[in-house]
Amino acid sequence: MADQQDKKKNQINIELKEEVAEGIYSNLAMITHSNSEFIIDFIKMMPGIPKARVQSRIILTPQHAKRLFRALKENLTKFESLYGEIDIPESGDIIPPFNLGGPTPEA
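Now predict its structure.
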């Protein structure tokens, strides 16, 4: 009985609002840091459009950034063990090319 009470004390009630649960698409992340925080900007780039918009910004302490890194690494390992290695083309570009084979759009 004491174990169940301890578990209830350590539980966190997390609320997920409907509009947040839908998520925001991002195909680029930029990371900057200072001595006290990491800032991750999630960006959506569109093919052929030279301007991109930050969709969301997350600010973390260095400790939380390292926890996030470990959690991502663990989950990527699990994902790849189930579905195979994620292929990332070896190009020197940080920003992925967005040539989808169609004509270049013009405004």
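The mean pLDDT is 85.
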